[in-house]
Design goal:
By secondary structure, this protein is an all-alpha fold. The radius of gyration is 22 Å and the shape is elongated.
Length: 190
Amino acid sequence: MTPEPGPDFEAVKRLERELKDESPRGVVLIAASMIEELLRELMLARLIPNPSSSDTLFDGPNSPFGSFSSKIDGAYRLGLISNKFCRDLHIIRKIRNDVAHQPQSFIFEDPSPKNRVESLTKSHGIFERSPNWVSTKGVPSLREQFLEASSWMLFYLAAEKSRIIGITERSLEFGYITTLDTTSGLPEKP
């Protein structure tokens, strides 16, 4: 059995550098959008390929996986992410919704996003498990905590997509192949 590749921390650092100069609003909107798209790709990798150019599961106003929330829940129910990862993605979605309600003046230090980022940080526990790093570098800002969580989550989703085993299309059920012209009810062998 081939061991799984280790995390590509350079990819995480590149993403953090790319988002470094973005406004708080931009950081949240870009990270949430990237996560939502990777969830879609992860789900598509698992599902039977759609023969149409339009996918009614994801596209359109009544699509079951059209919203970020439904993609998160769908990925969990398809066994693609853990319940803890699911919960934390919902926290990121709620932070994105905070941005929608305060588009001009969003800052991580406002009570709602602050509580959510702290909850997210406590949930994954990376800084808590890294006391030497924290004592050397200091406690990260709320923005840095959000970036850390979203970047490792993005990395994980991208890496997981390559490991997904897709569902294969089922063979036809017996009612589509049976005949009443034989005594067994099944087609005769040639």
